[in-house]
Amino acid sequence: MRRPARYQRSVSYNPGEPKPVNACFTILARNHDWRSLRESMKQMEDRFNHQFNYPYVFLNDKPFSEEFKNMTRSMTQANVYYGQIPQEHWSYPEWIDKDKAAAKRKEMEEKGVMYGGSESYRHMCRFESGLFFKHPLMQQFDYYWRIEPGIEYRCDINYDPFLYMKERGIKYGWTIAIYELMNTVPTLWDSVKKFVAQHPDTIPEHNSQWWVTRDNGTSYNGCHFWSNFEIADLSFYRSSQYSKFFEFLDREGGFFYERWGDAPVHSIAAALFLQKEQVHWFEDIGYYHPGWQHCPSGDTWLANRCTCDPKDTSKTITNAGWGKCSREWKLLPDTPKGHRKALL
């Protein structure tokens, strides 16, 4: 991937000073996560943010402890914000039958569905799907980069991905694409089809739908961007298209009666509403989340001082069977030049 000279290491922003992109890191965390977050933040600072000094926004459904604040604030010179999630964003909507939701959790747990019995996981998925960007602390930002406890960055990032996206009109960035566990989303695609039928005006002629369905929309193939890493233009999530989409899915009840995750929700929305060129695969970013990693290879691996092993198929999802979704992104047909919204 070739980049202009201004993305080289000589570019830097001081803590607190205005930046060319109004952006932040956003981290959903609990108080006991501070130790693993210190490790994640150290890697982010060493690999990227010591030079760019983008602020951190920490969100929690409970008040953050002073210990958490002290242990995370000390890891960066950048501004740090701490916020509590409003109760209405971490509770049951009025239309959800709580007894039915509890019965469904028990049923899924008995069937061995991952996180099938977890109530808090469902609140998290709903919050990340359509509510995080509505938090008051997020209103000041135009772009965000998601970080989670336990993640690792295994290559230097010598340019500003926020600026790279802004200058090109890119709305969504990812590193790992993987198949969904279909027993967590048995009726999600049925709900998506109902939304499309009721809101055909929201679906552009040239989108990326082929990546998530290969039978002209009949079924979902399970491909999704692993959203524990995502960089997004928040105008995408704040758009009327996405708002209608999330509100429709929220009313369908699948966040609580099944175990719909934010990753397939974000990914299907990107496929429906965005062109291929508005979605960017950051192939040069070496990223690990417990379970899988993406690792660059060749000259990029050497130049960015990577420490991951691109040949390790037990971890490098791109080269493993479940990484087929990543590889097939490149097979998605390009948008005709006269219709492209991104500057690529």
TrEMBL record:
Keywords: Transferase. InterPro entries: Glyco_trans_15, Nucleotide-diphossugar_trans. Gene3D superfamilies: Spore Coat Polysaccharide Biosynthesis Protein SpsA, Chain A. The active site is at 230 (nucleophile). It comes from the Eukaryota. GO terms for cellular component: Golgi apparatus; membrane. PANTHER family: ALPHA-1,2 MANNOSYLTRANSFERASE KTR1. Belongs to the glycosyltransferase 15 family. This is Glycosyl transferase.
